[in-house]
TrEMBL record, chains A, B, C, D:
GO MF entries: N-acetyl-gamma-glutamyl-phosphate reductase activity
Keywords: Amino-acid biosynthesis, Arginine biosynthesis, Cytoplasm, NADP, Oxidoreductase
Semialdehyde dehydrogenase NAD-binding domain sequence ranges: 2-141
Lineage: Bacteria, Bacillati, Bacillota, Bacilli, Bacillales
Pathway connected to this protein: Amino-acid biosynthesis; L-arginine biosynthesis; N(2)-acetyl-L-ornithine from L-glutamate: step 3/4
Protein name: N-acetyl-gamma-glutamyl-phosphate reductase
Subcellular location: Cytoplasm
PROSITE patterns according to UniProt: ARGC (PS01224)
Function as written in the Swiss-Prot or TrEMBL entry: Catalyzes the NADPH-dependent reduction of N-acetyl-5-glutamyl phosphate to yield N-acetyl-L-glutamate 5-semialdehyde.
Homology family: Belongs to the NAGSA dehydrogenase family. Type 1 subfamily.
Record-annotated active site: C149
Amino acid sequence: MKVGIIGATGYGGVELYRILSNHPHVEECILYSSSEMDVPYSNSFPHLHQLSNHILRDINVEEIKRDIQFLFLATPPGVSRDLTPKFQGSNVRIIDLSGDLRLKDRLAYEQWYKRPCVSDDILEHAVYGLSELHKEEIMNADILANPGCFPTATILGLAPVVQNKIIDVKSIIVDAKTGVSGAGRNASQAFHYPEVNDNVKIYKVHEHQHIPEVEQALHSLNEAVGAISFSTHLIPMTRGIMATIYASVEDSYTTEKLLDLYKSYYAESPFVRIREQDVFPSTKEVYGSNFCDIGVKLDERTGRITIVSVIDNLMKGAAGQAVQNFNLMNGYEETTGLYFAPIYP
Amino acid sequence: MKVGIIGATGYGGVELYRILSNHPHVEECILYSSSEMDVPYSNSFPHLHQLSNHILRDINVEEIKRDIQFLFLATPPGVSRDLTPKFQGSNVRIIDLSGDLRLKDRLAYEQWYKRPCVSDDILEHAVYGLSELHKEEIMNADILANPGCFPTATILGLAPVVQNKIIDVKSIIVDAKTGVSGAGRNASQAFHYPEVNDNVKIYKVHEHQHIPEVEQALHSLNEAVGAISFSTHLIPMTRGIMATIYASVEDSYTTEKLLDLYKSYYAESPFVRIREQDVFPSTKEVYGSNFCDIGVKLDERTGRITIVSVIDNLMKGAAGQAVQNFNLMNGYEETTGLYFAPIYP
Amino acid sequence: MKVGIIGATGYGGVELYRILSNHPHVEECILYSSSEMDVPYSNSFPHLHQLSNHILRDINVEEIKRDIQFLFLATPPGVSRDLTPKFQGSNVRIIDLSGDLRLKDRLAYEQWYKRPCVSDDILEHAVYGLSELHKEEIMNADILANPGCFPTATILGLAPVVQNKIIDVKSIIVDAKTGVSGAGRNASQAFHYPEVNDNVKIYKVHEHQHIPEVEQALHSLNEAVGAISFSTHLIPMTRGIMATIYASVEDSYTTEKLLDLYKSYYAESPFVRIREQDVFPSTKEVYGSNFCDIGVKLDERTGRITIVSVIDNLMKGAAGQAVQNFNLMNGYEETTGLYFAPIYP
Amino acid sequence: MKVGIIGATGYGGVELYRILSNHPHVEECILYSSSEMDVPYSNSFPHLHQLSNHILRDINVEEIKRDIQFLFLATPPGVSRDLTPKFQGSNVRIIDLSGDLRLKDRLAYEQWYKRPCVSDDILEHAVYGLSELHKEEIMNADILANPGCFPTATILGLAPVVQNKIIDVKSIIVDAKTGVSGAGRNASQAFHYPEVNDNVKIYKVHEHQHIPEVEQALHSLNEAVGAISFSTHLIPMTRGIMATIYASVEDSYTTEKLLDLYKSYYAESPFVRIREQDVFPSTKEVYGSNFCDIGVKLDERTGRITIVSVIDNLMKGAAGQAVQNFNLMNGYEETTGLYFAPIYP
């Protein structure tokens, strides 16, 4: 299989490259960039010196259709809206890592993303692919909308209790924390080292574009889900997302029973690891890997549960899950090329 | 005024020293330590080379009574319980920065701190001193229990809406983030650099000893307050606490009205800074200072407000507030020796 | 005295503001910016919320001449070249924190800075002001070139042994490490958080524009000084410079004798702290302060000495030294408004 | 092949485990620890939850001899001295990652390590194994002393110019910078997060135990090598070593010629990457990988060259090189299980 990556000079793109260049079913990986072309990829990423002799190519749709069978779009917002229609009717299957194709409600897209939405036609075809929850649809997708980083951690953390209707969905509050690589590789004062180091910032309060994505996905598991509270914080670290989730739970549940539920819900999910009682995961414990680790505990004093869900935002939150979906879409073993340990420390 | 610091070799102690050594009403500052004595203070803290010629003294209660009029206890849990009774009846007034004297309910203390409580006599005398809320009692206190770092940020963030009864107090959820200096200067694997760097950890889930302190203080503002949800996260930074607080608010409130309420509530509080609409403080914006900065915003979709309250855990969360209380107890201007700008970046 | 800061929205500018707003001889501090004007200063720096009610002013030379007596230029390279001539003949004395006026050799300036040099007239008037070494000239200066951050640490580290001719000046090698704030507040990929965090980079190898400044200053102490080896490394921290300096020393010297020499050389310099035998300073030990801390040790195996000199790049390396020079130029006590302890931790 | 790791609960041990658990020729990897036994390995390292079902075993020499064919010692100083003799005459081949067997001169060991040296018998058998330089001896070794982290970066950086006698070996100065994981997993105040964060420290000035190791290795390449200057700095980052090396070079050399020499010297070394002219590696560019990246440049003004050599201290500086040597000792391809890209960012 020959695959392509558009947006190879971003962090999502280079993480895709790290995985795909070792993937047993990928014969060749062609790299495209709109900002740089005809230059060696290792100029952009010197850590690939001698490992990659790729030359970045311009985005020429006809050549892409001719040269590859599978395309990853690791592009900024708005690009997929323009690009995906050009591949309709071709043999190229697509995974889009941007948010352009995730929301089924085009008005919601336009409201939260503040830009025009993709065509209805593309929207209908695009499958929202959180690997653990939508395996069937993913397998048959031609255009796949890869979930966002915050939604992945949040939805995996909530799915068992939302789908089984054991929490009050109106009570859901998600306090999310992210490393800075989630903001991409383009510099701006907000991510300038001296502004971020030794600092915690909250941002996009009540306005993060991942909110409707989380609500849409949870709603599909349980129709009672409406608006949830969701906030995002920038943490002085490179990688990692932690979603700390609070919700009121049915009286009859204990921590033990909750953990059993989670373990059984994810029994067939090799990348979700449920922690033992009284143990909570930290973000570093999934660093560089495709795992989503989850801890749960009931607070008997308040009747609420605390769910902690962590991922590496560039892996399970972007490139890793994209390759997991690529595996599913092609009928490969779900873990192919992805089942390696986190780096610690 | 001659003052003493017991526990001068800890982070709280050295921050007290930084402030008190420039305080216009402090004639002399004597430093005590149980772990090191008869050695120069600057051996423990080389950043004080040539600035301090203090020799650490052993803790001799009789000498202390003779030498100083005011004592700061910046000691580990359990020490104040033993020390404070020895100063009863003396002329030495005390500010205790540990948690030993904060809880009025001795059973709660024993349950959350897992150690025996101080005597009833001391408990009755000890005034819980969050400077902005308890000014009168502080002025008349002989033994003052200085609030904890998390409680300070949380209570200041919640007081206006709790006291004015405009939120559903059952809905309060506090997601707190702290820098590592809050854990003190003693090394342990949990705070070993490679374990903390590039990592977010949740800890003491549902079990943090600051929970009953927050509840006690909020309850005193509004009797409806019972158990709240409160969690703590370790962030890879040296200083700073952010409390992100969620609560359901009465229908009639807008962000604008909430901000007016906060500004008016803290109109006489020089160290509380309420941010403008749509602006939220980050922890670095109070670094090294005694400020508590607060941002508030209504989420119309959920009917909840998000309150963000930040402090420097060693300043407003410990030594700074202790000196603010010292000023109040002595009838000095509240801001004496404390009203300096944060360091940025 | 009314003073002005041009370039107040940069890191050097805001550090000047932090010091000058507490300086007993500064009646008013007026802030100018070419990029922002007529907006509150605290918009640029929210940590100054309620502390500063300054409105940033446009740079109007005639108004500046009328309104202030003393001007600090905390501007990017090239700006002082244009601005300083406009104040000639006025009553405004100037301290320039940029590199524009430091090199007496205009060809060297043009070669290393790669831009045209200031006029000869200004060059002749401008006094290079490393406070500890050029006290007399500073006192009489009207235009002062404030030293660079790396040169300050390096020259103070080397002056005693260079001036006393006890090292082989051809053997001098300086390996310098800096925090990221030295690069200023403008964002670029090189200082983007994910690129800097958990990373050490060498940069401008053999080409740093501070090299000729160091050589010029050392040469003025000892004519034998020619080209030296000098390299700069970017460290994942906000503030701090360490210069690790190696040089071959005369046979007869011991570490003890060297330390005596340093202590005696800096006996009248309140901001230089010489450490005891076998103790070396770290950058955090001067954080936020105007100190330069120095450790020295002879390696008997190689006949070389290792000198370690640390400063806070924004303080002694920029704003702090500028105010120290301001004190000297105005006949104030050298330490006025500057003699406070580092923040630790 | 069945292999064992003694010291599996340290950072070197767990990095060995990360590599060996994916190594195609390793059938089983048994983990030993003196501090913990009969507990699951993933208790010590929760990032291995569900990935490792190993139970830590006690160190029983007879059982080890029976169960494995190859042993890695990732143990603190002094342990190998006691352990290695017990395996003499057995079929177990050993790679020791500690410094115990590296110095051929037992007096030097005792002077620099300040503890008794291993027996002469072991010393004679132990092969010092810097993979790129000692391939032949490594292939035939039964006991291999794996090089230290600083020596690996330094020796690889200097070997081409030392062996080819084009620098003045008396002029060599090495200024090394390291991440904190090099200090191991045991907590101490020196590596307590608030003490390390935002700080650069020099340590063990002129006394680092890696100095004689570097000198011994360079001397074996060029008998003129005697004492060199070598210093070590602690950097606020988890992984990575940079050795910045200065030396006077023969007149006839240009940067171009030097780079040619380096490329040709390492033409057969898959893990050494020589950078192009005017490009220098940063530590993050080898993060998590076994590469050693080198940049070189002549300073025509001083006649000195600056060599920058970077490694990941836990990989090429410890576990990675150990597996590279394991491959060589067993006749496997040198890159087996090791040739993967660095993680970036």
